[in-house]
Amino acid sequence: MIDAIVVGSGPNGLAAAVTLARAGLAVELHERMDAVGGGLRTAELTLPGYWHDVCAAVHPAGLASPFFRAFELTQRVDFIVPAVSYAHPLDDGQAGIAYRDLNLTADALGRDGAAWKRMLAPIIHRLNGVVSFTGSQLLQWPQHPAAALAIGLRALEQGSSCWNLRFEGEVARAMITGVAAHASSRHPSPTAAAAGLLLAAHAHARGWGFPVGGSQAIADALAEDFVAHGGVIRLGHDVRTADDLEPSRAVILDTSTQFLQNFADLPPAYARRLRRYRYGSGSAKVDFALSGAIPWANEQVRLSPTVHLGGTRAKIAAAEGAVHRGILPDSPYVLVVQPSVADSTRAPEGHHVVWAYTHVPRGSQFDATEAITRQIEKYAPGFRDLILAAASMSAAELAAHNPNYVGGDILGGELSLTQVLKRPVISRTPWKTPVNGLYLCSSATAPGPAVHGMNGWYAARLALMQTFGMRRAPKLGR
Description:
Blueprint: E1 2-7, H1 11-22, E2 27-31, E3 42-43, E4 52-53, H2 60-64, H3 66-71, H4 73-76, E5 79-80, E6 84-89, E7 95-99, H5 102-108, H6 113-125, H7 127-134, H8 145-158, H9 170-180, H10 190-204, E8 210-211, H11 216-228, E9 232-235, E10 248-253, H12 257-263, H13 268-275, E11 282-290, E12 306-309, H14 313-324, E13 334-337, E14 352-360, H15 369-379, H16 383-386, E15 387-393, H17 395-401, H18 417-421, E16 438-440, H19 454-466
Parallel strand pairs: 1-2, 1-10, 2-9, 10-16
Antiparallel strand pairs: 3-4, 5-8, 6-7, 11-14, 11-15, 12-13, 13-14
Helix pairs in contact: 1-11, 1-19, 5-6, 6-10, 7-8, 8-10, 9-10, 9-14
């Protein structure tokens, strides 16, 4: 008999599967697509020989996550960690450059350099404690109170009407807003600010890593370990209800809350709580194959594989606010990643791949190709002439491609203050459902989105303890 079944092979499903198999259980992993990975897949989306990340492209959490550190990911996958984590050009030709070196970044920011260091240094110096706090279920006393206080106070400041008081110039303000906008939220917002501060701290600590060959390398390393410990992978199996699976003692779903509601007969009270769970704005993504590197007007921006576009803090806040109200902004925030700047395996010699997305209203069918092209061209004149091919996915198409992206929400649920605590329900063990042996481990659970595997790790450890009576978590290292 099968001990446990995991449905969905995104980073959290793979993390859960690895943990269960390492504990000596007979485990099956079911995936509806023809390859494992979910948001970690890499594919030739435009032209042969141009390898694009289907969803996640750059991995700050992959280098810092307690799960991946226990799994010894960097000993299994080659990572490139650039000297510049991200860049943020402005309309007047200036640009903020987030070097791995905090002091170098501060020096480049001039009059706001000291304030930048005061904002981030206390978080960086306590980063393991901050990751432990933000990567846990928050309904508990933090193990590292000083670390929680360091990021909490700054998130309250940068997430409130006081957010402009720390800095005098526009560059530093735009830099922290550009990383906060990864959270796809209104600004200022304490949750978006916390996400931005954590990403910015990673930028100056372990860096923003790129797995050589693309994000698929992370998925493949997890799958290889799972199979090596007796796990069985079933590809092309579109599971919809519990009747589609063989009997097992435990089932862990790396799926949306909507899938969970259709999968099993849930108690009415729990089902009502799930129906109140909210999904956030959608994303529209475009991948480009280029005949050369993006010709950023500011030479310093060319050093960075990751670039945030949208202008000043005020302009980004206006654009994101419009999306939150269901309106497509005229000048959108765009996140651009050109991994081939650092990784030559991603495209033919001298050529490049570009991954870019912008936020749109949930469920939108808007094709963002021209909007993203125009925004990149604004800061990199001549970009349009380099395009060999482009592949776009609207928010609606993203949702059809991966049902976990409800309405094109790639974060697995709105990142509001209430939904940081209620993910998907308020509970000290939010991965456990009221159905015996049934668990949820997707980004709709604590601690939320990003490629860190923590949701799957927590769900699997809880299943090991509650369903199988194993109180000691298995070792994950090589």
